[in-house]
Amino acid sequence: MKALFLTSSLDTNDKLEDGTRVAKKFPNNNHIIDNLEKYLVAHNNLLIVASSPEKYDITDLHADVNKKSFATTLGFKNFAILDDRTITQAQQLVNWADLILLSGGHLPTQNKFFHRIDGFGKMLQQSNAVVVGVSAGSMNCASTVYCPPEEEGEAVDPNFQRFFPGLHLTNINVVPHISDIRNEQVDGISTYNGFILPDSNRCDIVAIPDGSYILYDGTTSTVYGEAYLLHAGNEKKICDNGKSLIIDNLEKYL
Question: Which of 51, 132, 173, 210 has its CA 20 to 30 A from that of 121?
């Protein structure tokens, strides 16, 4: 892959009062468009990888919004979807793509789909595309994925797994939407204080709000925008909006 972008949200659409999503040009928050342009070889083929591979109606709805947004923002011309309808063509689609978008959604569901595609992580590593993760798609890029409970029942399920193998594209565990997650609860338990912060005793976590992202260029990982390092049950702000910081060695910021 040419580069890996771990984002929280690209802000590709506006949601109207009736629930309709209208595509728009996504903003150049923390120079993300500028950085994408540095690594894109061409602006022809966009591959959208689903999070729920069997829910075609939902996948098509979100894919349509992303198609229009990427066409407007970066001039992409051709689009394809990787889900259960096209899983047997995974290698061909990865080879075809100039940019591969790993969609957001339910993290464990997407992870299971990724592992049904034999050697998917290696396909991405060996591709000539720019890989962009969004939310769950970003989290699943880690070697060992950290997965806090999200849906009702998961927080009280003793068999719910919060750590499992990912795509091995990065060693960084990212938690997106941190501004929202601080106030969320699952099964009456605070997602942040009940799970994420305590789980930083098991792995370091880089928490980012929408508009921030991490860029791995094959050598160096750099966070752009506001970011927090969670370590050993503590939180430390390591970067501000509009700034960037190399995070190859997180220990130096403890």
Answer: 210
Residue 37, both tokens: 């342009």
For strand 130-134 and strand 3-7, is the pairing parallel, antiparallel, or unpaired? Answer: parallel
DSSP states of the chain as a string? --EEEEES----EEE-TTS-EEE-PPP-GGGHHHHHHHH-S-SSEEEEE-SSTT-HHHHHHHHHHHHHHHHHHH---EEEEESTTTGGGHHHHHHH-SEEEE--S-HHHHHHHHHHSTTHHHHHHHSSSEEEEETHHHHTTBSEEE----STTSTT-TT--SEEE---SBS-EEE--HHHHTT-EETTEEHIIIIIHHHTTTS-EEE--TT-EEEE-SS-EEEESSEEEEETTEEEEEE-TT-EEE-S-GGGG-
> Residue 246 and residue 15: Cα distance in Å, rounded?
34
* Tens digits of residue pLDDT in 16-43: 888 788 999 999 999 999 999 999 999 9
